[in-house]
Specification:
Elements: H1 7-21, H2 23-35, H3 42-63, H4 66-79, H5 89-108, H6 112-118, H7 123-136, H8 140-155, H9 160-182, H10 192-218, H11 233-264, H12 266-302, H13 306-333, H14 335-342, H15 346-353, H16 356-361, H17 363-378, H18 382-406, H19 410-436
Helix pairs in contact: 1-9, 1-12, 2-3, 2-9, 2-10, 2-12, 3-7, 3-11, 3-12, 4-8, 4-11, 4-12, 5-8, 6-7, 7-10, 8-10, 9-10, 11-12, 11-18, 11-19, 12-13, 12-15, 12-17, 13-17, 17-19, 18-19
C-alpha cells in the first residue's frame, strides 16, 4: 500500500483528474469569453450568462454530491478487497439522483422568471436569463449522470476515463460556441447567447453518452437497477444529504455574491462573472490533487493504513500548493491580458482589475481547503464537511460581505468575503485532521 503513495502514482490520478475537473468551469469560461464579445448587447448577455451559470452551478453542485459519496464507498470497499459486494449500489444511487433532478428541473422551469428576479435580474438581462436557462437546464440530468459515472471511476482509482469524457465535452463546446454564437456565413445565422446555451447542452449530451459507453465496456459495474436495496444505500444517502446541505451553504455564498454584484450594476456583474469563472477554473485546476486524495484516502482507510494516510496528506498538500503558486505567477504576469480575453468593455475591465489581485493571492488558501476537502470526502467525514461550510458561510462569508458593502467596498467587499470564507474552510479542516487522524499513525 505504501508503494502507491509516490509522486508517480499520485500524479497518475491527479493529472487526469485535473484535466477532467477543469472541463466544467472551462465550459463556463468559454461561454463567458465568447458571450462577452457578442456585438449586440454584449454586456447584457455576459451578465445573463453569469447569473444563469451561477444558478445552474448551484443545482449541479447540490445534487452532484452523490458522486463523492459513490466514490468514497467504492474506494473503501476496494481497499478492503470487497469490491464485488458493492456492485449493485451505483445503479440504485444513479436512479435516485436522476429522478430527483428531473423533479427539480420540471419545478424550476415554470418559475424561472421569479428565480432570476430574486437574483436582481431585470429588463433585457432578465429576458436573456430566461432564454439562456430554458435551453441549458435540459443538460442538468445529463451532467448529474456524467458526474455519477465519474465518481464510480474515481472510486475504482481510475481518473483517465473521466478525463477523456471531459476533454471531449470541452473541445466540442468550444467549437460549437464559435459556430452557433457567431454563425457561419451562408450556412448558420448567428444565434448569440442562445447559441452558447445550445453548444453547452449538446456537449453535455455527448459527455453523458460517452460516460455510459465507457462504464458498461470498461468496468464490471452494472447499470441495471436491481433489488433488494443495497445495505450501503442508507449510508450513501446520509453522506449525500450532508453534502447536499454543505453544497447549499456553499452556493448560498456564491448566489449572494452574484445577487449583490448584480445590484451594483451591469458592469459590476460582468466583472464579477469573469472573476468568479477564473476563480472556479483555478479551483478545479488545484482540485485534481484533491480528487487524487479522495480516491487514495478512501482506499487507505479501507485497508486501515493510517501511516500511509498521513504521508498521502503531506505529499498531496505539497503538490497542490506548488500548483497554486504557479497559477499565482501566471495570474500576475498576464494580469491585463487575462481580462481582455473576456471583455473589451472598459468599465467592466476596470471593475475586474480592481479585484483580480484578491483572486490571485487567495490561491494558496484555496489549495489547502480543496486538498483537505478531498481527503475528508475519501474518509467519509461528510458531517464535518457540512458543519465547516455552515460555519464558514453563516459566521464568515455573510457577515463579512454585508459589513464590507455597508462601508462602500462594493465588488472589493465581495471578494474580501470570499477570502475570509476560504480561510475558515481550510483552517477548520486542517485542525480537525490533526486532532482526529494524526494520532492514529
Amino acid at each position: 500500500m505504501k508503494n502507491s503513495i509516490t509522486f508517480k502514482n499520485i500524479n497518475k490520478l491527479a493529472i487526469p483528474a485535473t484535466i477532467a475537473g477543469i472541463a466544467e468551469p472551462l465550459l463556463s469560461l468559454t461561454d463567458t469569453a465568447i458571450v462577452g464579445n457578442i456585438e449586440i448587447d454584449g454586456i447584457e448577455s455576459l451578465a445573463a450568462a453569469g447569473i444563469v451559470g451561477s444558478f445552474l452551478s448551484m443545482l449541479i453542485w447540490v445534487l452532484g454530491q452523490t458522486r463523492s459519496a459513490i466514490s468514497t464507498i467504492i474506494s473503501q470497499y476496494l481497499g478492503a478487497g470487497n469490491i464485488d459486494e458493492v456492485k449493485s449500489l451505483p445503479a440504485q444511487a444513479i436512479f435516485l439522483n436522476i429522478s430527483l433532478s428531473i423533479v427539480i428541473l420540471l419545478s424550476t422551469i415554470f418559475i424561472v422568471e421569479d428565480i432570476f428576479r430574486l437574483l436582481n435580474a431585470s429588463g433585457k438581462i432578465l429576458e436573456y436569463c430566461i432564454a439562456y436557462y430554458s435551453i441549458r437546464v435540459w443538460g442538468f440530468p445529463l451532467t448529474l449522470f456524467t458526474f455519477a459515472v465519474m465518481g464510480i471511476f474515481r472510486g475504482l482509482q481510475n481518473t483517465y476515463y473521466p478525463m477523456l469524457i471531459a476533454i471531449t465535452g470541452a473541445i466540442l463546446n468550444v467549437v460549437l460556441d464559435f459556430i452557433l454564437v457567431f454563425g457561419v456565413d451562408g450556412f448558420i445565422d448567428p444565434m448569440n447567447l442562445e447559441g452558447a446555451a445550445w453548444a453547452s447542452l449538446i456537449a453535455q449530451a455527448v459527455m453523458a453518452v460517452m460516460a455510459f459507453i465507457l462504464l458498461i465496456t470498461k468496468t464490471s459495474i452494472p447499470l441495471q437497477l436491481k433489488f433488494p436495496l443495497h445495505p450501503e444505500l442508507k449510508r450513501l444517502i446520509f453522506m449525500s444529504l450532508n453534502l447536499f446541505v454543505r453544497a447549499i451553504a456553499l452556493n448560498t455564498a456564491l448566489i449572494l455574491a452574484v445577487r449583490e454584484a448584480t445590484a451594483l450594476g451591469d458592469h459590476y456583474i460582468g466583472a464579477h462573472t469573469i472573476a468568479i469563472n477564473l476563480w472556479l477554473f483555478s479551483a478545479f485546476f488545484i482540485d485534481g490533487y484533491s480528487a487524487a486524495g479522495n480516491s487514495i484516502s478512501g482506499r487507505l482507510l479501507g485497508a486501515k493504513d493510517y501511516k500511509g494516510l498521513h504521508l498521502l496528506t503531506k505529499k498531496i498538500l505539497t503538490y497542490g500548493l506548488l500548483v497554486s503558486f504557479v497559477l499565482m505567477l501566471v495570474g500576475f504576469i498576464f494580469y491585463k491580458p487575462i481580462g481582455q480575453i473576456f471583455s473589451n468593455d472598459i468599465p467592466v475591465l476596470t471593475a475586474f482589475y480592481s479585484v483580480f489581485f484578491i483572486v490571485i493571492i487567495g490561491l494558496p488558501i484555496n489549495a489547502v481547503a480543496f486538498i483537505y476537502d478531498g481527503i475528508f470526502k475519501g474518509l467519509g467525514e461528510m458531517k464535518y464537511l457540512r458543519n465547516t461550510l455552515l460555519w464558514a458561510t453563516f459566521l464568515g462569508f455573510i457577515p463579512t460581505l454585508f459589513i464590507a458593502l455597508h462601508f462602500g467596498l462594493e465588488l472589493l467587499g465581495i471578494w474580501i468575503a470570499f477570502t475570509v470564507w476560504m480561510l475558515i474552510r481550510g483552517g477548520s479542516l486542517v485542525l480537525e485532521f490533526r486532532r482526529k487522524f494524526r494520532p492514529m499513525t
